[in-house]
Amino acid sequence: MRETIVDRAYAKTLLPPRKEDGHKGDFGKLLVLGGSVSYTGAPYLAASAAVHSGCGLVYLGVPESIWAVEAQKCVSAMPFPLPETDGRLCLAALDKMQDKLKGCDVLALGPGLGRGKETEQLVHALLWQVKEPLVLDADGLNALQGCTEKLDVRRGRVTILTPHDGEFARLTDRTLREIASSERTELASRFACEHGCILVLKGHRTRIALPDGRMLVNTSGCSALSKGGSGDVLTGLIASLLCQGMGAAEAAALGVWLHGRAGELLAQEMTAYCASPRELVTRGLGLAFRELLEA
Fold it and tell me: Phi and psi at residue 208, in whole multiples of 5°?
């Protein structure tokens, strides 16, 4: 297996140029779908991360019962309410989602989505219907437990999965011990090749498995990222880079490196104990982008 190390020098080659005379339409439009009565922070973090990493317009579709919460928090994104069942997005929301997606370049699905039968059916329907590039995370991934073959319909379309070890264990019906073993890299590569997707297996030295068998190994990151919500930031960041015209492998690699470096720089300022996912968005990403631009 051919491995490529993703370090500062490699990330520098990936950073997309930004036109001085560009307008918001030049930098892409993203639709984030997620949130539930139990998880109002996750969609906010994903949408905010996309804004803070250069995306031109970010729409955020959430259950109608939490729309007011998101509208108050997400002043830089555009939340809108969708039909729900038991506080989670449901199949009745599908048509409105499709209408909104017509004007967007990328879909980020899963942050804070919650788990339920109808929510799982919604994820399966979107996998089938959505032609745009898709970043799938959190409960969007959990909806595939026991039925990962549903991913195969997206072969030939850009699909990026961002599981941590627990989510990957559920996807592959393996134990955490097996996922954490020396075969971790091989398991990730096999999954990406079998399903024609990019698999970002988060953790120490995050692995990015490509469907052609190549493997990218990230070098940035620290324990400041070991907090709930950090993964939602990564979802929004990768989706934002896709919106700005990057290739899927490049967006995943740059997103993972910037995310890790943002955590490192934030930890230098306030320690890994005190850094939070919100500050990762509002402070850390800016530090990481500036450092890379000036490298």
Answer: -120, 105
- Confidence band, pLDDT 50/70/90 cuts, at residue 179: confident
Does the pTM surpass 0.85? The reply is: yes
Contact 205, 219 (CB under 8 A): yes
Q: In the chain, where are the structural domains located?
A: 3-12+19-294
CA separation for the pair 254, 259 (Å, rounded): 8
Phi/psi at 106 (5° precision): -145, 150
Q: What are phi and psi for residue 102, nearest 5 degrees? A: -60, -30
pLDDT, one tens digit per residue, over 87-102 is: 999 999 999 999 999 9
What dotted CATH number matches 3-12+19-294?
3.40.1190.20
